[in-house]
Amino acid sequence: MAHPALHLRIASRSHVVIPARLASTRLPRKLLLRETGKSLLQHTYEAASRAARPVGLWVAADHQEIADEVRSFGGRVRMTDPCAPSGTDRVAEVARDLPEADIIVNVQGDEPELSGASIDLVIRLLEEDPQSVMATLATPIRRRGQLEDPACVKVVFDARGRAMYFSRSVIPHPRQWDDRLLGATPPLFYQHVGLYAYRREFLLELAAMTPSNLEKTEKLEQLRVLEAGYPIVVGVVDEPTFGIDTPEDYRAFVQRQRAG
């Protein structure tokens, strides 16, 4: 077991940043939806606050309405460039103002059911693998429909837990299909869970790097990192988080909240 003082020293350098845009294509103004009595953004903020390791939690807002919402529930917010091209750029903008941090965790604003344990895990992965510049998560895929869905991003990783590739295609791709592959132990197929921890210095470099060919082809930003030759360590969790992308996703979330 780590010495308590050492744990506190390490944890004090970790911050969570939630990039939050007002506009959204498939579900307009989704972060401000509040059929549960709380906005989706507040649910995500409260979920992230359950992590034990970080000492900082921020929302990177692109619009005054988002900032006002965060302040209304007592959260901490920083305004970022409304023209920032991606959430990663928004997170990096906040990270520039956090020179004391050495690990920055990017939590999507539409992940209201993310566990605090998952945030703690990506931080710990970077603490334990000093060569990796990023950490992320994966969860086993047990359904063929999910495996073949391009919206479900797959990842394969090596024996050290380092990512080898991310893809919207089926990876690994069986030469001959057998349904028993879905029940393999250890699992053969993994869904990528879009939670990222970065070393602060690398995050600032990443925001300045131009998109790579693989990234532009698959529309997956993490491929920019692999194509540039940097290692990403992957941790495995048993359950995926539920991102809210569509009206159906939000209705299902509201039902789970009411049932709980």
Walk me through the structure:
With 260 residues, this protein is α/β, with parallel strands linked by helices. It folds into two domains: 1-114, Spore Coat Polysaccharide Biosynthesis Protein SpsA, Chain A; 115-240, Spore Coat Polysaccharide Biosynthesis Protein SpsA, Chain A (Alpha-Beta Complex), CATH 3.90.550.10. 33% of the residues lie in helices and 20% in strands. The protein has ten helices and nine strands. A seven-stranded mixed β-sheet has the order 3-2-1-4-8-5-9, with helices on both faces. Strands 6-7 form a two-stranded antiparallel sheet. Strand 6 and strand 7 (163-167) form a beta hairpin. Helix 4 (87-95) packs across helix 7 (200-208). It is globular. The two termini are 35 Å apart. Residues 1-12 have low confidence and may be disordered.
Fold blueprint:
Elements: H1 4-11, E1 14-20, H2 40-48, E2 56-61, H3 64-72, E3 77-79, H4 87-95, E4 103-106, H5 116-128, E5 134-140, H6 144-147, E6 154-157, E7 163-167, E8 190-199, H7 200-208, H8 213-218, H9 222-227, E9 232-236, H10 247-259
